[in-house]
Amino acid sequence: xxxxxxxxTNGWYNxxxxxxxxxxxxxxxxxxxxxxxxxxxxxxxxxxxxTHMPDTPIALIEAERVGFGASGRNSGFVLExxxxxxxxxxxxxxxxxxxxxxxxxxxxTLKKLVQENQIECHWHDWGKLHVAAGEVGEAGLKxxxxxxRKLGVAYEELDQDQVAAITGTRFYTRGLKTEGTALVNPAAxxxxxxxxxxxxxxxxxxxxxxxxxxxxxxxxxxPEGEITADNIILATNVWSPALGVARNRMVPTVxxxxxxxxxxxAEMDEVGGEKAFGLLPSxxxxxxxxxTPDGRILMRNTGAYGGEATxxxxxxxxxxxxxxxxxxxxxxxIANIEIEHTWGGCLGVTRNGGHIFGKLDDNMWxxxxxxxxxxxxxxxxxxxxxxxxxxxxSDLLNxxxxxxPPKWVPPVIGRFVAxxxxxxxxxxxxxx
Length: 432
Fold this sequence. Notes:
Elements: H1 11-14, E1 27-36, H2 40-52, E2 58-61, E3 77-78, H3 93-117, E4 128-132, H4 135-151, E5 156-158, H5 160-167, E6 174-178, E7 182-183, H6 186-195, E8 201-204, E9 211-213, E10 218-222, E11 225-234, E12 251-260, H7 265-271, E13 277-281, E14 288-291, E15 297-305, H8 313-330, E16 339-349, E17 356-361, E18 364-368, H9 374-390, H10 395-402, H11 411-427
Parallel strand pairs: 1-2, 1-11, 2-8, 4-13, 11-18
Antiparallel strand pairs: 3-7, 4-6, 5-6, 9-10, 10-11, 12-15, 12-16, 13-14, 14-15, 17-18
Helix pairs in contact: 2-9, 3-9, 3-10
């Protein structure tokens, strides 16, 4: 069975204080409900299910430490809308509006939890700025504007001077600023959510499921024990095929990020711009950038195919070099700033933006594939799955049920499409 194969580092996670030792599942355990995967989706599903069933013991099993895996490896954008101009124009406005409402619902849910539980994750409601640095990016911005208008998303067009006032660089030629997105340290967010789960949820970390025998009950084998479950929820995203679910429904794509040390006050003065911001590219070849409240630069670009690529030393080295070059292009004054961490994170991309959701088998449910919007979208999907299980209707659940399932992706085709997209990014590297 293929298990999560993340690299030995995750910058967002590494800059946090050392957590207490993990509780590992040991010996023989029995639970009415087991949620597999403690990323944002699994955390949300377990929390909502526990709210519906306050007297029912629930186990939440995570192969690594909470916040170290895929949910803690993204760029830290809590998106209020999934659509981005680099993806091209969408054809189904009603479906895209449903996806937007799901993202917004997830963002609002997370914000409330962060406030109520005083989770320190650098949450700030800055919004997002789509930027262009060339012809391809300019074309992407036009698509972004068209999509925003169709969805009713207000935006502000910024010229080069206005973008430079925010970012401290004239690398970008134009931008579109929208409100609604929050910026966070995603690893800190996950860890805080894991620490504040309801009392009837038991979290097991460093407990990969190495085998799953279906039946009544299910039997899950882990390195140090076995757990018997009456009901299973899968929140395992791109790793789901290892458990016999969602085979050939996702393209496992890896994106790479680096995080610098905090800038000194002198460096921040020389760079200029706002203290914190989040930039999204309007071209596939562009970089996602976050300047954090503590003065770090998060640079994300470079891609690869397959979950195992998160730990490939050669690709990590190439990504780190690309990130250094990208920083130097934007801010020559800090061209040699130390990059403390470089890592890869794997996400599952579906052909049609589809989502696996609902009942998968007898006593087995799942929510799988968020197509790169795992923070808000995954959170909402996890909560709605719990609502679906207990029969709690809502307009948001109807939105979720309107999202189609993923289309089949032959393995060879998936690899070909991913590699073709990566080659396109390399060919347009001026946007990077």
